Amino acid sequence: MSFLLKPVDTVEQISPEDFKKNYLDKRRPLVIKGLTKDWPAREKWTTDYLKQIAGDLEVPLYDNSKADPSKPINAATKHMKFGDYLDLIKREPTELRIFFFNLFKKVPSLIDDIKIPKDLMGGFIESMPAMFFGGSNSFTFLHYDIDLPHIFHTHFGGRKHIILFDNEWKERLYCLPNATYALEDYEVDNPDFKKFPALNGVKGYEVFLEHGDTLFMPTGMWHWMKYIDGSFSLSLRAWDASIGRKIASVWSLFTHGAVDSALKMMFKEKYANYREKLAVTRAENALAKGKP
Length: 292
Fold this sequence. Notes:
By secondary structure, the chain is α+β, with helices and mostly antiparallel strands. Helix content is 28%, strand content 24%. The strands form three sheets. A seven-stranded mixed beta sheet has the order 2-3-12-9-14-7-6, with no helix packed on it. A five-stranded mixed beta sheet has the order 1-11-10-13-8, with no helix packed on it. α1 links the parallel β2 (10-11) and β3 (30-32). α3 packs antiparallel against α4 (82-91). The protein is globular. The two termini are 16 Å apart.
């Protein structure tokens, strides 16, 4: 029993025409190894450099523990000086990671170190470049982004293991109702297929990013990420061109954000238990029907 994972297509460079025809329009992931070859950030952005320019900032940190049902998702585990955290991930394995950090607001000059790939597509949300940091051992739970953007995810300073699934598999992935993330009880890189039988046969992609690699993840794609080395990434987000997808984004933010948070705060553990049971039921039903 297993997931059916295939490698993500990888290119050094790609023309806008080929990118649109074969990846953007078809909602397929792609690794572009040479996208950052002319970015100053590719050589300039090291943990020592980031510590030098922003080491005194206090940052929220997250670990691999399951979310508390009484708290909003992404509640921080602890806080630490950014420089001390960067020293930590260089020095030793740790589960602690930084989630969706807009360092550009604190250090606006960083924007000069990157080049947004507007030649490949439009719709980039230039005010929201997000950075993610993790020590070896840390991972992000399986999820898709609540606002349904396309994402260009560039990695720096080490290696990162990523597993992806198309959104059509969400029921078989034990997606929690009113949420954009899955049950946190299974290890995506080593799942218990006896306990979670609906996972068996789910098709996806697997890739290992190295320094300077950029992964294109189309809108709604599920992703799980594990830091092999203490390292960090930059995500550039872009809206899909279709009006329908923009409407879906707003609806997702409402139902999976506001509604889910309100129910979680009102009913706490009862709500958590209810939706976990419903996720299991839906997964088993989808498996019985042979649905992706």
